[in-house]
Every structure is written in C-alpha cells, then in structure tokens.
Amino acid sequence: MNKFFSRDFPAVIQPLLSDKSFRNYTLAPANQEVHSELNDLSLGDCFPLGIKDEPMAQCCLSGLWLLHNFLNESHEISQSIHSPEGSYWHGIMHRMEGDYWNSKYWFRKTGNHPCFENVFGSPSWDPSDFTDQCESHKEKNDHLSPALQATAGAEWSALFEYCYTNATNTNATED
Length: 175
Known about the structure:
Strand content: under 5%
Largest sheet: none
Shape: globular
Helix content: 55-70%
Distance between the termini: 21 Å
Order of helices and strands: HHHHHHHHH
Structural class: mainly alpha
Number of strands: 0
Number of helices: 9
C-alpha cells in the first residue's frame, strides 16, 4: 500500500500513485510517458467493484491527470463536475498553474469539505490559505519548497481517497 493512503487501490492505478508521482506534484513538465496510460484508463478499470457515484469517479480521473501535471485534461473534467469535489479539483488545478485568484474562487465553491480533516488530521484545513502560502513562495522561487510540495501531496491524497471511497460500489465483491 502507498504510504499516502489508508486503502489499497486497484492494480491498474497503483503505478499512477507512486511516491515518485507525489514528488513530481508541481508545475514541472508533464510526464509524457504516462499520458497514453491515463488516456486509455476507463472508469471501469479504476472501479472494478462498480461505480455508485459517477461524478465522484470522474473526480478521480481529474485528480490522476492533475497528479501527473496534465492541467488541461484535468481542467476539462473538473469544470464539468458541478459538485464541491469538482470545484476542489478545479481549484487545485488553477493553483498549480499560478492562477491564484481563480483558485480561491473555486475553493469558496467547495465550502467546508469533509476531506479537510484528512489533510494532516486537521478539520481546520483551508485550501485558500494554502494557496496564499504557495503564491507567496512562488513570488521568490521558481518551484514550491519541499514542505509545500509535501502539503500539496497530502491535500491531493486526502481528496483523491475521499472521492474514490465515495465513488466505488463497496457493496459489490471482486470476482
């Protein structure tokens, strides 16, 4: 199991959730080797037990594209999901591209999300405050500090796990 999650994920997405993916969770060049793998990924592949909430499942795809720095692909998915989770992924994408004001707009639409308590175990997590920290740091540096990257990774994994858990049909059994 990946150290960032409290659950195991299907084998098809395990390689996409490697520790290396989290180290690259910045606005670095997108990993082109992963593009075709993500492009070929279906919701059925990601959710072998079935899907109980398709928008949540789509959020997971948006998050996977985002993790690998494919902002346009993630944006295309997240902007079509009219839910707090879609807004949250949308906000993270805009933060990553450096559109901080727009990012905070989407975080306001997110509201006080239940996954906040899974970001460092603090229900007081505020993605807009974190956006301000990223903006302040980026004014002086080209890349986020390792501490900010780790925080962004913790936020990403909390939201991904929340979306995945709420998307999957946990009443089914694998064959």
